[in-house]
Task: inverse folding
């Protein structure tokens, strides 16, 4: 068994730490839950959903608020100390501040984050702040109006940029910008995004394109490798210095005298799998032990059949025990049937 040392959660001692009990056969521990709270979205990003949307699930197929809370509670008892709400677009749920508050109040949970396209932040910012949101990742792939409309198939870049500034001014401790880098679409904007870190204490994260694009652009040569992104940044940005980041942030830099950081995420190259700590639950309650795996455990149906918390915990632990070593290994045995990140929970 390969023994991979993982940081113990809650090491700042903010809450009583619980030893993570979700462990795989490779010695990794899992304490970071990414919880998708819907599939619907108010944008139609070209690398995520077709213009007409995907085959959205019916309401009855999605987890209820009560079921989401139950899974948050059960996973926290298994050692989850960080939760991220995602989707779809999580800010389309009016009860998202209540879910954040619920998660933040769980005994063992220290950090609650949210990933959003930023369009609706202004409507919820105060409530999210009051609920104790620890961090917000805002997705924005271009700083140019016409490109935004092309990539998202919607208008709204001004609102997103205004909302990024509101988030920066808020009490939310961590603000990150997610940029999916695509050849020809935006790979010439790396420096423009990097420059934002000179003035603001944010992390700009450049993410590799992944093949979960509902058969739109993956096969058209738009993939831009993490190493290319790093090389471009080194060539263009002022004296990049390597610094520490989160476990997915494989390459992390700071420009000279910058307030913020720049990170590159090899989401497709997958050289970050060795330190994976993530648990994914889709909006319809399927547990995934890897983004690239088709093996799913149906937590929703287990709950609806009346399972005890113990039964749910046993299925979660079993699913992770069998996790493949990396995303390449997982993919080899499976042909992923979820075609869009909205169905996986990005
Ligand atoms: N709607 C929210 C948003 O866009 O931030 C949350 C859900 S979205 C699926 C989560 C993240 O996945 C976003 O940063 C988005 O850019 C990213 N994403 C979606 N499809 C992707 C793909 N095919 N490759 C890489 N990243 C993708
Ligand atoms: Fe919506 Fe996010 Fe997918 Fe874009 S990436 S279509 S904002 S879910």
Result:
């Amino acid at each position: 068994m390969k023994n991979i040392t993982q940081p113990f959660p809650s090491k700042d001692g903010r809450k009583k730490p619980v030893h993570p009990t979700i462990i795989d056969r490779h010695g990794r521990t899992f304490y970071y839950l990414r919880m998708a709270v819907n599939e619907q979205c108010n944008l139609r990003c070209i690398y995520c959903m077709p213009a007409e949307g995907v085959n959205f699930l019916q309401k009855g197929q999605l987890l209820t608020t009560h079921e989401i809370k139950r899974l948050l509670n059960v996973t926290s008892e298994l050692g989850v100390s960080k939760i991220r709400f995602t989707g779809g677009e999580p800010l389309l749920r009016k009860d998202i501040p209540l879910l954040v508050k619920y998660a933040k109040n769980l005994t063992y949970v220290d950090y609650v984050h949210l990933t959003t396209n930023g369009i609706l932040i202004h409507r919820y910012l105060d409530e999210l702040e009051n609920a104790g949101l620890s961090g917000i990742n805002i997705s924005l792939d271009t700083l140019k109006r016409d490109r935004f409309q092309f990539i998202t198939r919607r208008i709204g870049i001004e609102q997103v940029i205004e909302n990024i500034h509101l988030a920066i001014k808020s009490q939310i401790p961590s603000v990150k910008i997610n940029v999916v880098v695509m050849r020809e679409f935006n790979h010439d904007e790396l420096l423009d995004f990097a420059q934002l870190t000179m003035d603001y204490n944010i992390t700009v994260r450049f993410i590799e394109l992944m093949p979960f694009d509902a058969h739109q652009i993956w096969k058209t040569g738009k993939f831009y490798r993490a190493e290319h992104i790093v090389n471009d940044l080194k060539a263009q940005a002022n004296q990049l210095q390597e610094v520490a980041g989160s476990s997915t942030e494989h390459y992390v830099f700071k420009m000279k005298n910058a307030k913020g950081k720049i990170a590159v995420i090899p989401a497709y190259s997958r050289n970050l799998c060795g330190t994976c700590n993530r648990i994914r639950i889709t909006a319809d309650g399927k547990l995934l032990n890897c983004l690239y795996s088709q093996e799913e455990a149906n937590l929703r149906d287990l709950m609806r059949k009346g399972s005890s918390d113990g039964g749910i915990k046993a299925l979660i632990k079993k699913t992770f025990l069998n996790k493949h070593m990396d995303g390449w290994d997982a993919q080899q045995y499976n042909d992923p049937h979820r075609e869009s990140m909205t169905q996986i929970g990005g």
